[in-house]
Design a protein that fits this description.
Layout (H helix, E strand, L loop, with lengths): L10 H8 L5 H8 L6 H8 L4 E3 L27 E3 L12 H12 L2 E4 L7 H8 L3 E6 L5 H14 L3 E5 L9 H5 L21 H4 L17 H11 L3 E7 L2 H9 L4 E4 L13 H12 L5 E4 L5 H9 L4 E4 L1 H33 L12 E3 L8
Parallel strand pairs: 2-3, 2-9, 3-4, 4-5, 5-6, 6-7, 7-8, 8-9
Antiparallel strand pairs: 1-10
Helix pairs in contact: 1-13, 4-5, 4-13, 10-11, 12-13
Bound molecules: flavin mononucleotide and 2-Ketohexanoic acid.
The site of 2-Ketohexanoic acid has 8 residues, from helix 8.
């Protein structure tokens, strides 16, 4: 463990003590976002427009945090999971295996990035029932994607989370300036050496390189049916933020929708995800589950996302802070803080179970959202 002496009682504390001790290239990669960071910042700050209407005198001696619905038939401890993020070995030598062990020990769900350092098989072995989502990028070389999909299905992953907000990498100024590259001693765990996609070539967005391996031509009509033809896993889409795309996704037959703007790393000036969530939930109309990520840092944020209709929420950067803090134990510590904070919010709001967290428990103040 690095030398952290401050008591850590919130995720903000964990961020504050770990980031100054993180190498600049990694710190910029984790903390950065697209362009002027407007969406990155608003993902978190927009939660403050929502206020909780607390009920009292409701005997909250027992509070049950189990999710409203099982996920892939399993009851996790809490409707909060670990979102897929790339290159966990930049935070700790255990990498995604440490993260998966923490998920298994705390009974949390986990998504694994296509760009993990450790392989999907190592992560499945470590995380077992917790390692459920495999986040998919579709590459121009479709045979590489197809082979990967077949391998992760065989390993026991339950669903693909097809990332739909990244036809090109966003323009992340800090990565462009410092020419982000994966340290040479780390690898791409999911690809045989000769097929490893060229992440560095993607840095900079459309102008970064003509050799971007991610296929920017993916679309509803072609890509979802193609994935269906090669896998029996569930197919979810990660990165939907509008009612229009919710409808198209459902028409295309997806099994679930994950509202996300990639933690503000892709399109800058997009809506904060907590503000995009209600229109997606309304358009989905209960036909498929809706999950959300982006800027969630407190138990109150989890509560608000559930109140607005999300079935499950996911954390990105806090997992990296936890890993940096102390590997598996650090991720477990981060999870403990979120769990305590969510439980406390539920009790103080007078909710015994997640089912009781509904739109009536919230009001929104401040600038309103209206379509033009
Ligand atoms: C360093 C980093 C790497 C990421 N890598 C991926 C990735 O490989 N695939 C993906 O779909 N999303 C990726 N994401 C986005 C996360 O899955 C998630 O949408 C986002 O981090 C949620 O926002 P938060 O960090 O504010 O919690 C990454 C995010 C970060 C911070
Ligand atoms: C090509 C993208 C890889 C990781 C990623 O999604 C991110 O850095 O946000």
């Amino acid at each position: 463990m690095a030398n952290f002496t401050n008591p850590i009682v919130s995720l903000a504390d964990m961020e504050a003590v770990t980031m100054p001790q993180t190498d600049g290239m990694a710190r910029d990669y984790w903390q950065g976002g697209a362009n002027e960071l407007i969406t990155l910042k608003e993902n978190s700050s927009a939660f403050d427009y929502y206020k909780i209407r607390a009920r009292c005198m409701r005997n909250v001696e027992n509070v049950d945090m189990t999710p409203r619905k099982p996920l892939f038939g399993k009851k996790y401890s809490i409707p909060v999971g670990v979102a897929p993020s790339a290159f966990h070995q930049m935070a700790h030598s255990d990498g995604e295996v440490g993260t998966a062990r923490a998920c298994k020990s705390q009974n949390w769900a986990m998504g694994l990035s296509s760009y993990s350092n450790r392989s999907y098989q190592e992560v499945k072995d470590a995380g077992e029932d917790s390692a459920v989502f495999f986040q998919l990028y579709v590459f121009k070389k479709r045979n590489i994607t197809e082979d990967l999909v077949r391998r992760v299905e065989k390993a026991g992953y339950k669903a693909l989370a097809l990332t739909v907000d990244t036809p090109y990498l966003g323009r992340r100024y800090s990565e462009i300036r410092n020419k982000f590259c994966l340290p040479s001693y780390l690898g791409y765990g999911n690809f045989p050496e000769k097929e490893a996609p060229d992440f560095e070539a993607a840095v900079g967005g459309m102008t970064g390189s003509t050799n971007n391996e991610i296929d920017p031509s993916i679309c509803w009509e072609e890509t979802i049916p193609w994935l269906r033809s090669i896998t029996n896993m569930e197919i979810w889409v990660k990165g939907v933020v509008t009612e229009e795309d919710t409808e198209l996704a459902i028409q295309a037959g997806v099994d679930g929708i994950w509202v996300s703007n990639h933690g503000g790393r892709q399109l800058d000036s997009g809506l904060a995800t907590i503000d995009a969530l209600p229109e997606v939930v309304k358009a989905a109309g209960g036909r498929v589950p809706v999950h959300v990520d982006g800027g969630i840092r407190r138990g109150g944020d989890v509560f608000k996302a559930l109140a607005l209709g999300a079935d499950f929420v996911w954390l990105g950067r806090p997992v990296l802070w936890g890993l940096k803090y102390d590997g598996q134990a650090g991720v477990e510590k981060m999870m403990g803080i979120v769990t305590e904070d969510f439980k406390s919010t539920m009790a103080l709001a007078g909710c015994h179970s997640v089912d009781e967290i509904n739109p009536k428990t919230l009001v929104r103040i401040g600038p309103s959202i209206s379509k033009l």
